[in-house]
């Protein structure tokens, strides 16, 4: 028996029940297949939990109680002034590499000073 992995799980539902569960699997000998069930499953309980081991990819936005996690992360990055260095530009510009090095050193120095102040305030 060959190893198969489920690459797609699809659920279709109306307001009250999950009507169809579709699993799509693929491996070297069976390129694509679909297993469908048209049984209805009660979904009166609007609560669910998801457990995943490994990476989870979400194409789109994740919302918790209507709040966009994507937007929230952008706001946090802006407030904390978190920037993502442009490595291609750094390769071409020595000045940019030097500024990055200076920033890292200054940040380390400030964090050490803050830790000393925190210890002295005890």
Describe this structure in words.
The chain is built from three helices and six strands. With 122 residues, the chain is an alpha+beta fold. The strands form two sheets. Strands 1, 2, 3 and 4 form a four-stranded antiparallel beta sheet that branches. Strands 5-6 form a two-stranded antiparallel ribbon.
Write the layout of secondary structure elements.
Layout: E1 5-13, E2 17-26, E3 33-37, E4 41-42, E5 63-64, E6 67-68, H1 69-80, H2 87-92, H3 94-120
Antiparallel strand pairs: 1-2, 2-3, 2-4, 5-6
**How many H/I helices?**
3
Q: Give the quaternary arrangement of the chains.
A: single chain
Q: Tell me, briefly, the overall form.
A: extended
**Unreliable sequence segments:** 28-41
Percentage of residues in DSSP E strands: 15-25%
Which tags fit this structure?
single chain; 122 residues; alpha+beta; four-stranded antiparallel β-sheet; two-stranded antiparallel sheet; 3 helices; 25% strand; extended
Task: Tell me briefly what this model is.
The chain is α+β, with helices and mostly antiparallel strands and 122 residues long. It has helices at 69-80, 87-92, 94-120; strands at residues 5-13, 17-26, 33-37, 41-42, 63-64, 67-68. It starts with a strand and ends with a helix.
């Amino acid at each position: 028996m060959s190893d198969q992995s489920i690459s797609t799980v699809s659920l279709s539902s109306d307001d009250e029940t999950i009507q169809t569960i579709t699993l799509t699997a693929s491996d070297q000998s069976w390129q694509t297949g679909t297993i469908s069930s048209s049984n209805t499953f009660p979904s009166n309980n609007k609560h669910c939990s998801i457990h995943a081991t490994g990476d989870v990819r979400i194409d789109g936005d994740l919302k918790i109680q209507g709040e966009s996690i994507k937007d929230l992360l952008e706001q946090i990055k802006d407030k904390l002034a978190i920037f993502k260095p442009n490595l291609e530009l750094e390769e071409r510009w020595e000045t940019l590499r030097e500024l990055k090095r200076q920033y890292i050193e200054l940040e380390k120095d400030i964090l050490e000073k803050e830790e000393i102040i925190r210890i002295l305030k005890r």
